[in-house]
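User: Fold this; tokens only.

Assistant: Input:
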Amino acid sequence: MVKVRGIGTEVQCRAILDSGSQVNFVTERLVKRLGISTKSSSISISGIGSRSTKIQHRVNVALQSRINNFTTRLEAAVLPQIISPQPSQEIKIDEWKIPENIMLADPSFNRPDKIDILLGAEFYNQLMAAGQIKLSDDLPILQNTVLGWIIAGKVGGNYISNAICGICTNNDINLDAAIARLWELEDVATLRKLHSVAEKQCEAHFAQHTLINENGRFMVRLPFHENPEALGESDGMAYNRFLALERRLAKSLQTKNQYVQFMEEYENLGHMMQVDIDSISKPRYFIPHHCIVRPESRTTKLRVVFDASAKSSTGMSLNDLMYTGPTVQSDLFTILLRFRLPRFVFTTDVEKIYRQMLIQPDERKFQLIIWRRNSSLPIKHYQLNTITYGTRSAPYLATKCLEKIAKENALHYSLGAQFLQDNFYVDDGIGGSDSLTTTMEIQQQLIHILKQRGLNLRKWCTNHSQLLQNVSREVQEVDVDFDNDINQTIKTLGLTWMPKMDRFCVKVCLGSCSLATKRSVSAELARLFDPLGILAPIVVMAKMFIQDLWQLKLTWDEALPADLNERWTTFRNDLQKLDNIQVSRHVFEGYIPAKIQIHVFSDASEKAYGATIYIRSELDEGRVQVRLLCAKSRVAPLKRQTIPRLELCASVLGAQLTTRVKIRP
């Protein structure tokens, strides 16, 4: 039994501990009794047998022990019911020899009652305390916790009629984000967004607190908007997550070795260092970590990422206390448009960009981690010394440092500074000019101004061999053979580019064909990445299919109806044919036009509308060339619209797209 506080209300209810659950839960009944408001949520929770439940609401509540002063805050998903009343039937305990000098967390544990809270793995280790009593071989164990003594284990006799298992995981956050991105790529913003008050405060914080150390490297501070004192205990949570990580790594020797190699490099480069945890003052924060495996990457097959959104004992995380910061660089669509205009281009990447900017020493205590290379070794504590991947402010701090470099060098290295300002998307730079000499000068200036601040460029690739003459093979993206290998490809900002042919090509990577469900179909369609709209007629069909799918209100793992399944099978087979499509990267195909015109077309049907932009260029000797530059498409609203109204929407989309093309590049 625990106490839960609401708005002027305190409720005592029964809770259950589940070390296998990644999520905390409360019941709708408890929320109503507390009189608290909920926040909207959109996650899918799956348990044994991969059965899924959609969560629409979450709450943040204060939890208190009924026998001592222990208090914590937890964020929990709201469900109509967590599990059936527990235990499933009354248990006779007359002959149990429970010591009289202990305080039970729930004196009525043996009688069935409703469960209103499930506390997951996040809190499990924090709640455990020293002390364990074994009653007998065929009776449960008494375990001491900060909430009181709890009962856990098998009960002798024929008590079990229905077995309960409550392992829950959240599977669909990434899938929801990927589907959302499919729609967001079609947005056409024609006005530059003004900074909010919070973004202005973040900018002022950066300007006031950013330093350059004696080696020329940036030293930044974490942009807190709330006092870090709001952070509670996080070491227990991080320890529990780390033990779970070790169990997962033990199942794959290859992944474990890559993980160990990554962390050893992290330490050897000085990006993290071991600390005596007793010497680190509070408030402090431990960041759990896990890995992302990317077999297709040519440089980093495995990347360790850090979860700075993990809640401390107060219900607050490091990310909750920091500004996100404004967007500093141009958007992806604009940068890719610019990439289509110059005759000579190159692509490059800033090596380990986040880890080249140092966090000022007194704030590194908010970036603590738990690590050991082998489970037989004692646990060690480390602090991360640089901007950390997974913290809310990391993209802003890194890109803001690049912007600062560009402004510092605008006068003496104008070409390189302008390229850095206009043609970088986080750490990826793509662009060039119509002159080979100018492009080479941009390249050299860019290398120089970044190296001054400890930033190295790698993964070089280009459509002209002279741009690689002074670049060592070790830092080239691929070894491009300009004499023979015309089909060599690289990935740049999500697009597949053939540098020798100087063409974009379409690569369709679909998994094995299995049972078509809402989950499997959505996952495959979300992989369609087409920011320039080259595949707009196909992408809009995918969005129309998703729209139809959502209207059926199927569960994630429910098979598609026969008619939709047939449509999906046909569409999926047709997607394979896209592998034959190639589009020139340079919209003028190697020529320097004397005159350029923009031609815009828009149209609509009952189900969708769209707009395209073509570039008409006049070349030497009066030759004319017309090429597709970009396109955008939209599905029609569910509420039926007239064709004239949808055609007007298409015209507006065309006007917005034209404004974007004329202003941005």
